[in-house]
Structures are given as structure tokens and as C-alpha cells.
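Predicting holo structure, S-adenosylmethionine bound.
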Amino acid sequence: MANETQKTYWNEIAGPKWLGLGGAMEARLAPVSDAVIAAAALQPGEHVLDVGCGAGFTSLDAAQKVGPSGHVLGVDISHPMLEAARELAAREHAGHLEFAFGDAQTDYFTPPANVFISRFGVMFFENPVAAFANLRRSAAPGARLAFAAWAPLADNVHWAKPLAIVQAQLGPGTERAHRAAGPLAFDDPDYVLAILQESGWSHGEVTVQNLFLRGVSLDEEARIACTMGPSGALLDEKHASLTQRETAYNTIRAALPNYAQIVPGGVRLAATIHLITATAP
Ligand SMILES: C[S@@+](CC[C@H](N)C(=O)[O-])C[C@H]1O[C@@H](n2cnc3c(N)ncnc32)[C@H](O)[C@@H]1O
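Done. C-alpha cells:
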């Protein structure tokens, strides 16, 4: 069975942690959704597949674009994330927005999609070429793809700085295999372009996009850095004690004014993503 490690991780660890932040991740990543939706150029009546939809916020944005004559299916391998997504669709009375458990690397989805979208849901495959080739099975002729992935860590100080702080405090983590499944697996545009080509997608492009993430507050950002991303993962790997976590939180919180700007209604953090686009032949 494909992606078993990621299934366990997103069901038992990362999904509950993400949801435990109570919507902060969604607010933070809303500008990334906007970039994906703009790149997808969705039209009323289109059928959309949101790959690794998580709690469904990008799926909802897409449903608003395609309207009730269209349809959005969000697929994910995490039951808790899907439960939150279904609650969101019910709250928003979005009848043309549905969610299903499914592994994008192996499963077949209907109806055939005119457009595939994803906000950070495509970097976790054991075999990315197999996954991208598999998605084509569920594609309508000429289907488009618009995915967001993180650019390199060095271009994302909002993750790099907290990671450096936790490394200085607790030591480095286990070295990861090159391009192992994880948030930074698609940080090399040439590698992504090769995946698109090998999996049979046409007109593949990777556009580097700078944007600002939308934080709620500096306190909340420090909490996110101690929970998610490379710094949160390192704290977990080191089995950090409550005292060690408190130290990490305080150090990150003290550093945050150096890389986050306070703006009306919250904070903003510079970030860089890769926007991946292609079409099915
Ligand atoms: C970083 S989260 C992003 C969630 C959502 N797209 C968002 O931006 O809020 C990555 C998501 O991809 C899902 N995922 C990972 N591997 C997957 C696979 N093989 N098939 C479907 N979903 C997968 C995870 O369960 C998780 O919900």
C-alpha cells in the first residue's frame, strides 16, 4: 500500500496538530490559496479536484469560483482533516463541494476533473511520478493543473529562523534523504519539471512567487513554529520536554519582530512558493 507512513503521520500526528491550531494555519495560508486559484483560472461549471485538500479551505474557494453548475471534490488521506472539511462545506451550504478519502498516488476519482488544484498537498508522495501519472487517469481531456509547493527553506525565513533556533537549542535533527516526502520535497524547480514530464503532463512550468503569509499575532506565530513546519517537527523528533518547548517558544517569540511585520489586523511574513502548472495532453 502506498504512502502508509504519510497516512499514519497525517491521521495521528500532523492532522490533529494542524486542526488543534484552530484555523490559524488556514488564515496564514490564505494568500497561497489566492495564488493557486488565480493560476488555475477556474471557470463556472468546471469540475475541480483538490489534491490533499486538508480541512477544505482551498476547495471552498474553488467551489465559489466554479459555482453551483460546477463541482469540487477534495481528496485526502487524513480522516480528521476530511471531517473538518465536511463540517466546513455543511456550514457554507456548498452542495457542489464534496470530500472523499483517497490516496492521490493510486486512487481513481470521478467525475473527470477539468482542473487539479493543491495548496501544499502534493509533496508527500512516496513516488511523485506515479502520483502525477495516476492523477492523469482522472483528468478530462485538456485538464489543467495548478499546485503550490514550498520554495527552498532559505527563501522562507518564517520556517528557517525558528528551525535555526531549535537546532541551536537541541542540536540538529536526523539528516533526511534527499527529496524525501515532506514539505520541502518540491523545492527544486528542475526536479518538479522532470516529474511533470515523466508523468506525461504537457506545458509544465514552475513559477517562483513571493508573497506574504497572514499571521494572527506574534504569539500565535511562535505557537505555530513550535507545532508545525521544520521547527515543530524537530521539537517532536527530540521529544522536547515542556520546559524545552517553553524555551523554544520564548526564543522564537523574541526573534519574530526581526522577520514578521505588524500590520493592521495581524502580522505578515515574507514567503516564497513554487506555483506548478501543466496541462493534460
Ligand atoms: C500541508 S497539508 C495541506 C492541506 C490543505 N491543502 C491546506 O492547504 O490547508 C497536506 C495535506 O496533504 C494530504 N496528503 C498527503 N499525502 C497525500 C496523498 N497521497 N493523497 C492525498 N492526500 C495526501 C495530507 O493528509 C494533508 O492533509
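The longest helix spans residues 4-20.
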